[in-house]
Amino acid sequence: MHGRGYGSTGFGPAFTPPIVQKLLIANIAVFLAQVMTGHAFDGFVALAPMDLWARGALWQPVTYMWMHGGLGHLLMNMFVLWMFGSQLAMTWGPRRFLRYYLICGVGAGLIIATVPFLLVGLHIAPSYILGIPTVGASGAIYGVLLAYSLTWPDRTIMLIFPPVAFRAIWLIPLLFFMSVLFPGSGNISHVGHLGGVVVGWLYLRSQGDTDGKLLSLDQLKYKLRRWRMRRKLRAVQYEEWEARRREHDRRYH
Fold this sequence. Notes:
With 253 residues, this protein is mainly α. 64% of the residues lie in helices and 5% in strands. The chain contains ten helices and four strands. It has helices spanning 18-36, 42-45, 49-55, 60-63, 71-92, 94-121, 138-151, 171-181, 190-206, 217-252, and strands at residues 2-5, 8-10, 156-158, 165-167. A two-stranded antiparallel sheet has the order 1-2.
């Protein structure tokens, strides 16, 4: 559930733009093709670092983002695309939204394929990770979530589980925190999620859409000082309350 605007709350967007409808249909159609062919072509179009950089499979950073590893994976990504992407597409228009969606997905794919080589080169990870394939639109989806949270940072989002309400600007940090707290099956591409956020942020920054919407170092220092001041104030208030309580006990005992 998330707010549709100040003073109103609802579940999902009031309207689904045609560009979002087309993306939903395309992703579902590709998944049905995967199932009908028995996943025979998954190894060719999924993104594997070794295939891209050592074998020249240059199409994989594009094709991987239209595939999904299962029905649950598909439904979750499409739900988020519909929930948050619809309002963004209505605000931006179809061309800008589609361009951003593709840039985040492809950019995340390039990061997914590059990071394993760095880890192997630094002897942090075994070489077999270079052959592990990745599929899913999560990189593009996380880019959409970032853009939503920066466009409407003060909107209230209500999660169903856990039932928590928070401002949209904290959406991405909360999702990463939850992915660490509840890692799930271990097949989640955290690099892909982070890649979508990084690429989306770089793109939005180049367009001037992040100005004043992300915490700077000075803002963090200011917030830290305020937090320390509030902590000291609460400590003083507690001491005063304790002193009044002790004085009250002496009077009546």
